[in-house]
């Protein structure tokens, strides 16, 4: 038999394969609450503008709440023949209230309906992402505060570069996540225009009030062009690209935690709650949560590429291709929220091994730059010459199998006669980090100032 919603011009129903490729109810049922909110706003507007009677509208609005409670209670039977959440809800409303249900679709189309539902859904996810980011920032601030002056090696090329503080390293991620948060809120502000009332593509001849439905659904205004309103998926793409950048940050941090928790580094101990064991090697404690967070960027950025590829080349306005938007965004959102929560849990629970960090901070000639800077300051040497002299001292220490502070003054004088005992004061790591007082530098006072600035910002 032909479709009850659109089957007027059809003699035969769809092939089973047609139904299978066409149906989205298997996934878009996740937008049930948004669909019903949109329909309830639309019904109220239809009554306020005199397009339907007050009694029809209140029957619709009441009936829609019943449908919602059935869905929430798991008592709703979704039908593949009814394709999607929009038609499933409307068909059930018809069964519940009869004729007035048939008036609900006046002055709208599934095209503006789905765009509205999906925007509402994505908007909620943006709010959830911002919450997850803020919780993770709070956990990082606590770590940074505890270890504002704990020294550790800073790396470039994953080779020891200069000592930094634990707090400074944690605060680097706070900066990244702060940008993620601001990207999500920018995206939210930009997307917050309501497509409802664009109808199929051209608008409608009914005297609808788009300001009213926009307001009702928490949008700032109605979208200004009906063709754009039904064919725009920028909001989903911005969500996915912002989520991708955020997941990339999480992936970098996760990679550091994997390295830091290894037996070779022992910079951090991850809690049992966020680790797993091996079924064969009894000694193992694996950083699986970190590894999975490291991997999540794969599917999140994959979703971004997938939807961008779906959208490219689509003529205006709606094409069914666009139905492929939801699963990508659903999956990316689910996994971003999970990754944020797992990272927050790991950061809260992890222990920085202060002594190991300090020991590592002093190895690998990490204060060679301080030595070169001292030659410049104390002896008035040009930096390039100081660099060369320091290089010779590093080579000497390396040949002795010791670190720079282990060289004697005579060793030093052998390389450059003007060096004095004072030089040893700059070779300690604590001294090294304390000296980096430039704005944004690793000196504990700078780090504490940044923590205070972020705490204020987050309040
Ligand atoms: N299930 C569809 C989607 O997700 C709803 C819009 C259908 N519109 C249409 N003209 N067939 O995109």
UniProtKB/TrEMBL annotation:
<comment type="pathway">
    <text>Amino-acid biosynthesis; L-arginine biosynthesis; L-arginine from L-ornithine and carbamoyl phosphate: step 3/3.</text>
</comment>
<feature type="domain" description="Fumarate lyase N-terminal">
    <location>
        <begin position="8"/>
        <end position="302"/>
    </location>
</feature>
<dbReference type="GO" id="GO:0042450">
    <property type="term" value="P:L-arginine biosynthetic process via ornithine"/>
</dbReference>
<feature type="domain" description="Argininosuccinate lyase C-terminal">
    <location>
        <begin position="365"/>
        <end position="434"/>
    </location>
</feature>
<dbReference type="InterPro" id="IPR009049">
    <property type="entry name" value="Argininosuccinate_lyase"/>
</dbReference>
<dbReference type="InterPro" id="IPR024083">
    <property type="entry name" value="Fumarase/histidase_N"/>
</dbReference>
<keyword id="KW-0055">Arginine biosynthesis</keyword>
<dbReference type="InterPro" id="IPR008948">
    <property type="entry name" value="L-Aspartase-like"/>
</dbReference>
<dbReference type="Pfam" id="PF00206">
    <property type="entry name" value="Lyase_1"/>
</dbReference>
<dbReference type="InterPro" id="IPR020557">
    <property type="entry name" value="Fumarate_lyase_CS"/>
</dbReference>
<dbReference type="InterPro" id="IPR029419">
    <property type="entry name" value="Arg_succ_lyase_C"/>
</dbReference>
<dbReference type="GO" id="GO:0004056">
    <property type="term" value="F:argininosuccinate lyase activity"/>
</dbReference>
<dbReference type="InterPro" id="IPR022761">
    <property type="entry name" value="Fumarate_lyase_N"/>
</dbReference>
<keyword id="KW-0028">Amino-acid biosynthesis</keyword>
<dbReference type="Pfam" id="PF14698">
    <property type="entry name" value="ASL_C2"/>
</dbReference>
<protein>
    <recommendedName>
        <fullName>Argininosuccinate lyase</fullName>
        <ecNumber>4.3.2.1</ecNumber>
    </recommendedName>
</protein>
<keyword id="KW-0456">Lyase</keyword>
<dbReference type="GO" id="GO:0005829">
    <property type="term" value="C:cytosol"/>
</dbReference>
<comment type="similarity">
    <text>Belongs to the lyase 1 family. Argininosuccinate lyase subfamily.</text>
</comment>
<dbReference type="InterPro" id="IPR000362">
    <property type="entry name" value="Fumarate_lyase_fam"/>
</dbReference>
<keyword id="KW-0963">Cytoplasm</keyword>
